[in-house]
């Protein structure tokens, strides 16, 4: 089964704003500043897969420095205290939170996977037969961060059928 | 005065740390579990049952809904206040969790203030604890 995607960039932007307000920038002093550049580089990424009424992936990607800063903010640590495990845990939870909220906007029947974390660039991600359909791209304290949705092309084909 | 105890159940260590930080600020002693099964195992060994459990939904081994159902079926654990803390925000999921016996439902992402407000509504925030 396939559905028309009802999650657009403004929905994603609103979710991202909530994540920043809740965990990454509770004081409201360093928001994610939009760049609208979907080709901005990344060094690490995390993702969750959604299957069912919509099939695809939600991906959080950033530079390593931004990931380290996110972990420090999430875990209330100093930057120099942040470990690889802290970065990995934080990236996974960020993908889980955004992915979970995306799923909530889809028609009933969507299932969310547990998060996958890759301490490698998003460009190296293995999302075969998918197409990026939406995203929020920005810089956070000068470092690139993006949240994007990748739709399975199988889903696309079914939509056109 | 004996501090209250809270069990923080989430497969994300990062989220456990956030929740632990909040409940510790409210003078709870916090115990962590990485999934529902680990939480049940810990509860089986406890002589005193925690007053509060903050429970993620999507976890390996035993998910949050299964945990809530098991707790509600155990008379020894019936005094525990159960709060789901999850990204599962569809109305149908909230209804399922409350029907299974959860007392409250907090959707991620949440601010510290929003979480404390929910716990205050449940009577779990001692006066002056959040100062």
From TrEMBL, chain A:
Residues 46-126 form the Chemotaxis phosphatase CheX-like domain. Coiled coil: none annotated. GO terms for biological process: chemotaxis. Keywords: Chemotaxis. It holds the Pfam family CheX. This is Chemotaxis protein CheX.
TrEMBL record, chain B:
This is Histidine kinase. GO terms for biological process: phosphorelay signal transduction system. GO terms for molecular function: kinase activity. Keywords: Kinase, Phosphoprotein, Transferase. InterPro entries: Bact_response_regulator, CheY-like_superfamily, Sig_transdc_resp-reg_receiver. The keyword Transferase applies. Residues 5-123 form the Response regulatory domain. It comes from Actinoplanes utahensis. The keyword Transferase applies. The modification 4-aspartylphosphate is found at residue 56. Signal peptide: none annotated.
């Amino acid at each position: 089964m396939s559905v028309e995607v009802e999650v657009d960039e403004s929905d994603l932007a609103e979710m991202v704003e909530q994540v920043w307000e809740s965990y990454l920038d509770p004081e409201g002093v360093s928001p994610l500043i939009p760049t609208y550049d979907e080709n901005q580089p990344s060094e690490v990424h995390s993702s969750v897969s959604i299957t069912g009424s919509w099939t695809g992936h939600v991906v959080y990607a950033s530079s390593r420095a931004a990931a380290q800063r996110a972990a420090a903010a999430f875990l209330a640590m100093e930057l120099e205290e942040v470990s690889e495990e802290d970065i990995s845990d934080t990236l996974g939870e960020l993908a889980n939170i955004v992915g979970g909220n995306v799923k909530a906007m889809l028609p009933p029947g969507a299932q969310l996977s547990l998060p996958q974390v890759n301490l490698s660039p998003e460009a190296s991600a293995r999302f075969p037969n998918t197409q990026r359909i939406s995203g929020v791209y920005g810089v956070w304290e000068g470092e690139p961060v993006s949240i994007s949705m990748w739709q399975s092309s199988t889903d696309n084909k079914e939509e056109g059928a | 005065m004996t501090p209250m105890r809270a069990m923080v159940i989430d497969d994300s260590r990062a989220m456990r740390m956030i929740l632990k930080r909040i409940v510790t600020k409210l003078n709870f002693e916090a115990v962590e579990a990485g999934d529902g099964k680990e939480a049940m195992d810990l509860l089986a060994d406890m002589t005193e049952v925690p007053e509060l459990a903050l429970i993620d939904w999507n976890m390996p081994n035993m998910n949050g809904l299964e945990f809530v159902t098991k707790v509600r079926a155990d008379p020894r654990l019936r005094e525990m206040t159960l709060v789901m803390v999850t990204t599962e925000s569809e109305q149908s999921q909230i209804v399922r969790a409350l029907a299974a016996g959860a007392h409250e439902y907090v959707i991620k992402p949440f601010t510290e203030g929003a979480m404390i407000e929910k716990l205050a509504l449940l009577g779990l925030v001692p006066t002056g604890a959040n100062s």
